[in-house]
Amino acid sequence: MRSTVLARRLRIRDLPPTLTRDIASNEFSSFLKQKMLHFGDRKVGVVGCPVHHGQAKPGTEHGPDALREGGLIKKLMGLGLDVHDYGDVGTPSHEDDHHFDLPVKNPKHVATASENIAADVYNVIKSGRTCLALGGDHSMAIGSIFGHSLAEPEHVVVWVDAHADINTPLTSSSGNMHGMPLSFLVKELQPYISKLPGFEFIKPCLSAKNIAYIGLRDVDPGERYIIEKLGIQSFSMSEVDRHGIKDVVEKAMHYLDPEGVKPIHLSFDIDALDPSLAPSTGTPVPGGLSIREGNYICEELAATGRLTCVDIAEVNPSLGNERDNLITVNSALSIITHCFGGRRQGTYPKNYQIPIPTHTNHVAPPPS
């Protein structure tokens, strides 16, 4: 018995400290498989979603280009990824775009953009690529999540945001549709959703039990009621402060997918981060996630190997000054790269070799 325990201790001692904690929780084998995935095998499809009619501040339509100009594609390719940029989806305009019975703003604009986004996201995922959808305001998630559901119906959603974005047209006080995307998708809410022009294509595709929020700190009364009545898993900044981001992510994923088999959709609103890290966004709320916490969420989801669609929303380069824009874009790029294999301990492309000096024919063995 003693020798068995000693042998186990020796094996554990040779492993990084982060792995020993998972042995203690009987999750070592699955965790090891996840952590040993090679991200260089991943194929990524980038889809720009230049939508802004879901809220009142122009500029989110420039978010995709701001991220590209910030070096997005180069950073992803630097991780050894096969990256294809499919350009931006079409977002046709509608001159007469208001709803006479409800204070909902620009429903036709949002519906048309959502249908186009859904088609592109579906095509990217079905082609075997992980989809990266660049917003755009967060109404883009109507299309991205619906398109994902058409390709992978059993997927779960991790929603990282300062806001819950689950108002219905009747609970919203602003009428801005970037605060409503989940309500159009959640099956249990359909009796409470008003008919809006252009939304006929949307079919409820998401059960409340398949959603987990992280980072909430500005939730409307109607949204709080919906979250509690539907039993949606919710980790506000209070829970992040109380338990730490590691426990929050573990609890969220254990709740959503205890067997570790379902595709994951990450919808990340840049205002989930503290405004000091993302000043160029339309609805900043103090007391947000640190960049370390945001990156940790993405690292852990990426390590599962099941992250098949990522939204990055609400980057607005028209807000703030040049420095604000730079800070916000850099934060968004950090979040994105950590979704696709960027790791703070460092990484390297697949098949990387240490260069050998040209003046020798010696074949160096790999470092031990």
From TrEMBL:
It catalyses: L-arginine + H2O = urea + L-ornithine. Belongs to the arginase family. It comes from the Eukaryota. It comes from Magallana gigas (Pacific oyster). Coiled coil: none annotated. Its cofactor is Mn(2+). InterPro entries: Arginase, Ureohydrolase, Ureohydrolase_dom_sf, Ureohydrolase_Mn_BS. Pathway: Nitrogen metabolism; urea cycle; L-ornithine and urea from L-arginine: step 1/1. GO terms for cellular component: cytosol; nucleus. Binds 2 manganese ions per subunit. Its EC number is 3.5.3.1. Keywords: Arginine metabolism, Hydrolase, Manganese, Metal-binding, Urea cycle. PANTHER family: ARGINASE (PTHR43782). One of its GO terms (biological process) is arginine metabolic process. This is Arginase. GO terms for molecular function: arginase activity; manganese ion binding.
